[in-house]
Amino acid sequence: QSALTQTASVSGSPGQSITISCTGTSSDVGGYNYVSWYQQHPGKAPKLLIYDVTNRPSGVSNRFSGSKSGNTASLTISGLQAEDEADYYCNSYTSSNTPAYVFGTGTKVTVL
Amino acid sequence: EVQLVESGGGLVQPGGSLRLSCAASGFSFNNYWMTWVRQTPGKGLEWVAHIKQDGSRVHYVDSVEGRFTISRDNAKNSLYLQMHSLRAEDTAIYFCARDLRSTGSFDIWGQGTMVTVSS
């Protein structure tokens, strides 16, 4: 299973909005509404931000939102804050080979 | 408190074996698919394996198929990953995680346990 493709790095100023993309194929992102997004600070475990493309778990800020168009999913962070500086990963169900899940390559978000 | 705690990591020689454990608390463990995810230091996340609530279905990433075995003991609220024929490329932090909706929505994670494969 090949990793989903994410932009290596994205930066923005406090208060701005940024969007992180996650590109796959019709066997994963495009074929199923099972895309999730994770935030990971250095030395910490990942944190679930979005599941099933658009849903936020309880306790996650509404500054984080998810969407999908074709084979590309997106995570938008609005009102960027210093604590949003972290690595972000997408994940999708995939029917390629063994039914399973595949993560994206990861995006480093820098708050300027 | 909802919690997952991994253990069992360490240094092992190439070709060796190791068994990781993940102790769950604070939720009904037998109601959820459970997953192992690994992360090479400084690199990205890789989904490794998952197991259905009753243990009747398991799946693995191709690179560990035939070498790793995921299992669970619902009576002990525990998840396991038996690893054989370990390779240098298996060196990583191994996390266990709960799948909230059985759709890859990993909402609870452990702190991770480090596995180093080296001679």
Briefly characterize the structure.
The complex is a heterodimer of chains A (112) and B (119). Chain A has 112 residues and is mostly beta strands.
Please describe the topology of this protein.
The complex is a heterodimer of chains A (112) and B (119).
Chain A: E1 5-6, E2 9-12, E3 18-23, E4 35-40, E5 47-50, E6 64-69, E7 72-77, E8 86-94, E9 100-103, E10 107-111
Parallel strand pairs in A: 2-10
Antiparallel strand pairs in A: 1-3, 3-7, 4-5, 4-8, 6-7, 8-9, 8-10
Chain B: E1 3-7, E2 10-12, E3 18-25, E4 33-39, E5 45-51, E6 58-60, E7 68-73, E8 78-83, E9 92-99, E10 106-109, E11 113-117
Parallel strand pairs in B: 2-11
Antiparallel strand pairs in B: 1-3, 3-8, 4-5, 4-9, 5-6, 7-8, 9-10, 9-11
Radius of gyration of chain B: 13 Å
Strand content of chain B: over 45%
Structural class of chain B: mainly beta
Inertia-based shape of chain B? globular
Catalogue the unreliable spans of chain B: none
Query: Over the alpha carbons, how many angstroms does the gyration radius of chain A reach?
Result: 13 Å
Largest sheet properties of chain A:
6 strands, mixed
Q: Given the C-alpha coordinates, what overall shape of chain A results?
A: globular
**Run of helices and strands of chain A:** EEEEEEEEEE
**How confident is the prediction overall: mean pLDDT of chain A?**
95
Order of helices and strands of chain B: EEEEEEEEEEE
Which ranges of chain A are low-confidence, i.e. pLDDT below 50, for 5 or more consecutive residues? none
Task: State the separation between the terminal residues of chain A, measured CA to CA.
Answer: 35 Å
Residue share in helix of chain A: under 10%
Total number of helical segments of chain B? 0
Number of strands of chain A: 10
Kindly report the oligomeric state of this protein. Answer: heterodimer
The computed structural class of chain A is: mainly beta
Mean of the pLDDT scores of chain B?
Answer: 96
